[in-house]
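User: Structure tokens for this complex, please. No commentary.
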Amino acid sequence: MRRSLTRYIFRRGLQSIFLVWLATLIGFTVYQLAPGGPLQFLDDNPKRTSADYDRLAQMYGLERPTLVQYLAWLTGEDWFAVLPNGLAWQSGRCISNADKCGRGILRLDFGRSFYFKGESVIGLIAQRIPATFLLGASSLAIAVVVGVPAGIYAALNRGRLPDHIIRFATVLVNTVPEWWIGLLLLIFLGGYLGLVPLGGMQTIGDGSLPDRLHHLILPAVVGAVGGWISTSRIIRFEILEVLNQDYVRTARAKGLSRRVVIVRHVLRNALLPFVTGLSGIFLLFLSGSILFELVFSWPGMGRLAVTAINSRDYPVMMGLFVISSFLGILGVLMVDILYSFVDPRVKYEL
Amino acid sequence: MAQDALRLPGQAAKPIQEVKEQTYWGAVRFKLFRDKITMAAMALLIFMIAITLAAPWLTENFLGFDPTDTNLRNRSLPPTWAVAAWPEFQHFASTCQAGGIAHCSWSTWSDVLSDSAAGVKACLTAGPGTCHWMGTDQAGRDVLSRGIYGGRISLRIGVYVAGLSMTLGIVMGLISGYYAATLVDDIINAVIQTLSSIPLLFLLIILSGVFQPGPEGLAFLLGIFGWMGISRLIRGQIFSIRERDYIIASRATGASIWRIMFRHMLPNVSSIAIVIGVFNIAGAIIAEAGLSYLGVGIGPPLPSWGNMMQGSLGNFTDAPWLVLAPGLFIFLTTLSIYLIGDGLRDALDPWVK
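Assistant:
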């Protein structure tokens, strides 16, 4: 039993590594297929000449075969094919010091940004991950803390007012973009009533906890709405499912009180499947971060993605894609493993 | 004859009432047409489609503004009926900003409301070309006429995406359900698992940012990344019917795989497929709005509900109509689509109370 669990975790781990590799392949393919090539950002500069293209293409090693470029990006210039003429590159300039070259994404070097004048991509992303995590974790916490009791309450009062409120909220969330609700709340609560700040993570020069919470509250609450609704719906569905089971009827029949039946027999079994739902909600927050961060001027990965796209900063885009895929795959893996621990009935098959 | 023999003496011959057998689709139609909410939603959707189809005629004869006419003197004007009320509202907002919510001068609202009412009245009697009902955007274009034209793009994308992701999802679901627990099924499952464990919005903005597709290209992108849920659902349904007697019987009579899949299995999952397809249209409209708002969806000269809001990025508190108006279009359309989907879900189970 325990051995099969270890094997299951091992297999899921291998599968996840394969998925991450696939994500690097997808990212690199997009980069290669980009119309105008990876150096298209140069078109914005009227002074560039075709000699500049050639020079930069040589510096970045773009005239090498695609496969060599991919392997160099993946494993580093020093492990794989060194640039022609023994050159190595850093921040868009050729230098001869080989240990400062691209070290490959396996060693967490995603190259240098075009737009942010040669800053390292991993550094740019690392600066922004805490903000994204803060927002995502607060949203997740609000979603679970509000969503689970709401779902339980709706299921136990099926067909009455709380149930209708949740159904109504579901319709609302499915029919307007959530970021639009956020934008409207920001305009009215922030712009007109002055209750919340108009964006950002803190007032410049003031990093105190109350100030940070003041900035966090609206983005976190609006970001939680989607997760809250889907949590409530999953919980409600599961509870209604469990309430029809024979063992619940048996428990009632042998005279247990309603409270004991619900806490011991219903909730225990209904909350388990919710763990699998967590991975979906996690991905929702990771993806949703892009739009919420733009709306609330939140200095996280999502805003970096928008900047990178609009300035055709391909190294940053690829880095963001690979890292966010890695986080997503890791999240799904952890939820799967967690689930296999809490539910002894799970079958260890792929 | 038998009827005559059974008749009691003195009883007149009654014509035999023919009871028409109720077909499944007949029952669905009956239930659907009695559902008032769904009918109202249908009317709203037809209205939205009609105004987008009639956009050139409407903008020329009733609004008097071209959606692409820029006028830099008229940048970010409030709706014409609110020209008098807007500064009063801004005054109200500034009192709130200055003294906190306790010191808002709520009495300004009576002026705001009466001036708006007067403005609407004046606008209703004025001819075309004088009133911007929803204000103007950052380039001085009329927001209402852009909204009407934008519906052409947003609705088209919604329908295309639903069509593509439905087709892909149904075919993949049928195949993997039919070939369950074989290599084909494993491959399809692996693709689904891959696509559903990476944050797709990142991939979508990269793809649409790099390739800058038009409406059709964007619909293609949204479609090929939106079929996984449908496929999973269809697979589950197929899995539960694949060992039924009628499937085994048709296999025994030598029916081809395609015949079994499309003639015998598909009709049994069609009601679910229809409902998901309808919800998909709404989802695609919202997704398009998000991408265009980020600046990677539909490009600026073409109006779409998403990119109209993008213009509000810098000045949304000064020109809230740039956020409100397109969102209202999205809300009305997706709400009607969603309610129709909801009604269909009930109606397609016509014998369940």
